[in-house]
Sequence to fold (380 residues):
Amino acid sequence: MQQLKDRIKKDGVVIGNDVLKVDCFLNHQIDPMLMDSIGAEFHRLFSDQKIDRVLTIEASGIAAAVMTAKYFGCPLVFAKKSRTVNQSANVYTSKAFSFTHKTENTVTVSKEYIHAGENVLIIDDFLANGCALRALRDIVIQAGAIPVGAGIIIEKAFQNGGAELRAEGLRIESLARVKSMSETDGIEFI
Amino acid sequence: MQQLKDRIKKDGVVIGNDVLKVDCFLNHQIDPMLMDSIGAEFHRLFSDQKIDRVLTIEASGIAAAVMTAKYFGCPLVFAKKSRTVNQSANVYTSKAFSFTHKTENTVTVSKEYIHAGENVLIIDDFLANGCALRALRDIVIQAGAIPVGAGIIIEKAFQNGGAELRAEGLRIESLARVKSMSETDGIEFI
Fold:
């Protein structure tokens, strides 16, 4: 998605060789017009599938995911993160280690809001090592629903999550795939 | 907003006399078409003001706030909640006690994303005792910006936050104002 790549080049800040800060349009300040375009693009990419539900994880994924769900005319569910284990029988849970925050989170979704047999599209802002995406896919499978694909805004393709999950059969559509990045040489896309 | 009140009556679950669970369209599962209508309504209500920026707080406020910001054609910023104090000189911070979770959160917004003199519209999903809204207004004022108003999806008008903040001069537009509620008698709106 050229509009997104241009924006990353213009406003993304590379720290070291693996942190890409896009706080100014995605993770803290949000450009709603760009989120709308991203939602339209995910709708176009997955238009060959019947989508019953969009699933994302709080908090940065919500803005793009709500736009995507609007284009599909289906509900959005956002998984909740907590550092305590929710033992309720009414939720699906999975674990996700956050390399950004160096913490293990428990990811939960109420059993009321994913149903067996549904086609679920997962949306997330970043894909790097794939921990969050694995946890979301795991919850979809626990519910007996079908993870028909994942729409990712920015994939750090130099980390192994995308390659591993594609090898496991998950369809992943990433709007910007970063091949390499550094403070000196900037960002190169695939 | 009649569409919202009807939805609350239909799908809201009252627990005791003060908890209103709207997990199925607002706080966990989200109805994107309703969020779009809510964004349009906040735009209509505050169309007499020039809005430079929408401010909300993670996570449940983001969906409605991004739609609102899209109608205004301005950026959205979402404040972050954490239980640890972020001592960085680069953020505005304020405290908000969560009665729901019985915890005190530190609310932070990067200084990069609110500027002196800007007209800021605050959007949040619930207004009860007003703690979160006070923290957001406090951050706007710290930045030297103008809190031109607050758009609230559901106000529990039987709690004191709305009355107190209006008495302090904050303009609040609530789309549904709950006068009283109980498990037996249901929900009554003002």
In short: Chain B has a mean pLDDT of 94. The radius of gyration of chain B is 16 Å. The domain at 2-189 of chain B is CATH 3.40.50.2020 (Rossmann fold).
